[in-house]
Input
Amino acid sequence: MSRPAAADRPNRYGHALKPLWALDPAITYLNHGGYGATPRSVLAAQDRWRAQLEAEPTRFMQRDYLPAVTSASAALARFLGADAEDLVFVENATGGVNAVLRSLDFAAGDELLTTTHVYPAVRNAMRLVAARAGARIVEAPVPYPLTDPEAATRVFAGHLTSRTRLVVIDLVTSPTALLLPVAEMAKAARAKGAKVLVDAAHAPGMVDLDVTALEADWVTGNAHKWLFAPKGTAFLWAARGAQRGLHPTVVSHGFEQGFHAEFDWVGTRDPSGWLSIGAALDFYREQGDGAIRAHNRALANRAADLLADALKSRQGQSPECRGALATVRLPGTEGRDRAAGLALNDRLWREHGIEVPIIPFANALWVRVSAQIYNELSDYEKLAAALAR
Ligand SMILES: Cc1ncc(COP(=O)(O)O)c(C=O)c1O
Output
């Protein structure tokens, strides 16, 4: 008898899966989007790579590393619909964004366009390169809550000018959990002659990501969040015509010897996370691949409904503007700041064993929940009860 397809197996996801991770069973973990969580099988693969390296460091670094990293980045490229030549590993999306920004030359009067939902660390990197050149950062105020993807494109496109040199667009926004229509936004930017950098930090494993379909110049994203890779495993994809002059923030032996040569070796570091991408992809596929994405998005929708009903409050996005992350506004928190959000996060953790970020945006605090295959609806019920108190 053949095994039923993943999508046909009811209740195959949920708390019963949690032991596949090293997660503390006492904690209701609702922040998968924060840093990911690496399954035990992937950590075991990483341990094996480390053991191999440490048994003969010289041999490993000088002979084994290059073929291993070439094959690992090619596997990730295949998964993301890219050619192996066009995708390299970086340590995180912040690093991918920095590599691009710091490889570009801006001039006085140039504009770098992003949205008000941009990731704060990325905003800082933009500030640095803009300030050095006398360029200006423009942040398009994409509506929040967002219930219409076209409204996001419209507002964004309305801030493109003939001076816009570069746009930085988040595929899934960090503080507000919006799934943005990046392909349409990128198209509008290209039509104005701007270069396009997509920050897809959350996208791999959360949505069906084909990096080439975005028609961007550069796409960076994390494998350590929703794709279950070890921490420090991310990628930078560059269109063929956008690889020249692109350098890692750490310039090393491969300088001016090609995209892969520059990024594959950035000095001695622990490569075990990158090399474990095969194990992460295996785990992801064994757990259902597209079924994971569908399940997590459906669970995020149910969680958002449940929390909004319980708190008599509003959701930060409609289902078409949402991936596996959802935000719900916390009533009575007008004007509260980051410190108040951290204090509530701490209280939920100490008093209720719940790990969940509380984020200030649009003059209030919002709870941001992640939905991963080890979560169940009861996790959000527990959160709703704790918040109601
Ligand atoms: C949109 C966005 N960009 C960048 C990052 C940074 O990711 P990392 O810490 O892996 O660099 C995040 C993290 O949540 C994010 O949401």
Summary: Confidence is low (pLDDT under 50) at residues 1-11. The first strand starts at residue 28 and ends at 29. Residues 92-94, 119, 122, 170, 174, 199, 201-202, 222 surround pyridoxal-5'-phosphate (CB under 6 Å). The chain has two domains: 13-39+288-388, 47-282.
